[in-house]
Amino acid sequence: MASRRILQRSRRCDFHTPYRNSTQLFSTSTSRCDSAAAAAIAAAPQPKASPNTDPAKPHTVDPRWLTTIKRRIGKCLMFGLQPAQVDVAGSILQQIARDWRELIAGSEGFLTGDTRRSVFRHSVVWGEMDVMGKSVIYNARLLLRSKPEYHKIGHVNNVTYLRYAETARVNLMRNYAMHIDPAHKTDWLNTVGNKGTGLILQSIKLDYKFPMTWPDKITVYHRLTQDPSATLAKSFFQQEVLILSEAKQRPAARCLEQNALYDYKLLRKAPSPPAFLLEQFRRTWELQEESKREWQQRIADIENSVRTLEVGSWDREDAVEMLGSASKS
DSSP secondary-structure letter at 107? Predict the structure, then answer.
């Protein structure tokens, strides 16, 4: 029963948990969750060391990592855990349900705070769907009497992903203007206008990861792909765009944008980057590297905790599955 309640609680946390920015999660809620998990692990019976229990090293996540880690925890719960171990499993599931965006995006260096994200939980609407065609299926034996059945197969139109990326790029510049560097508000707003130094999208490459469908919600993040100190000297910079599907909890698409700095007063490529832009992009690059280290370590901690549950349950030498009342018969 405890295992079933834990799984039900994790499902409820998935979509409708109110979002809190990554700073709050890192400093308060998550730290309490991690300390409780660590205390429960310490109190639980510890298995003997074995060659396959080496601590996980920090790394970025596989697109299906969330699904895999949930299945591993589910296997431990179904096999049977001690009460302290059930608490650990519940803490891990709650952390994943709350922080899944940060675990996926933050571990790659994307900044996920509320002043850095470009689009947050935007609803995919039916009008963005693309009907691929109609397949007519006939019953061969009743060809003259039966009516054809029409099956529509659709997904979000390919062009829509580009619109998501473009909207996110403009929102990112507005974030710099309104929240990150309000002292240069006008200059940042001009980057998406035709006054002062603007940004011209030179090229964009889009990789589709799976066909997204309605209903769904997307969150979009940006990150610099190169140290801006080098690229901005040549009046261009590259950004990667990550479009996350909430229904699948994994990337739906990735874009690579190359932007050029254009001087609308001189009507040519900007000879040098503005000081305000160079300063903020340097700071953004530093924060990206910090985010990558922090969330990769979080992933390693989760994997170590899950591995401890596995070795303490079904993967120990003397493991015996808990069958409840059935074992007495």
Answer: G
The pTM for the full model equals 0.76
Residue 16 has a CB neighbour count (10 Å cut-off) of 6
| d(C-alpha 293, C-alpha 58), whole Å | 8
Query: What residues contact residue 185 under an 8 Å CB cut-off, 6+ apart?
Result: 177, 178
The domain 64-312 is placed in CATH, from the list 3.40.630.30, 3.40.50.10750, 3.10.129.10, 3.30.160.20, at: 3.10.129.10
Contact 169, 253 (CB under 8 A): no
| pLDDT number for residue 153 | 56
Cα separation, 293 vs 191, whole angstroms: 31
Range with the poorest average pLDDT among 46-60, 180-194, 212-226, 284-298 = 46-60
**DSSP H/E element including 68:** helix 65-79
Cα separation of the two ends of the chain: 20
C-alpha closest to that of 197 among 182, 184, 178: 184
State the angle between helix axes of 275-311 and 65-79 in degrees (0 to 180), rounded to the nearest 10.
Answer: 20
CA 187 – CA 244 distance, rounded (Å): 30
Residues 6+ apart with CB under 8 A from 249: 14, 66, 67, 100, 104
The CA distance from 129 to 9, in Å, is 32
Residue 35 has pLDDT above 80, yes or no: no
Q: How far apart are CA 32 and CA 149, in angstroms?
A: 55
Q: Measured between alpha carbons, how far is 259 from 270 in angstroms, rounded to an integer?
A: 12
- Integer Cα distance of 87 and 81 in angstroms: 9
Tokens describing residue 52: 């396959």
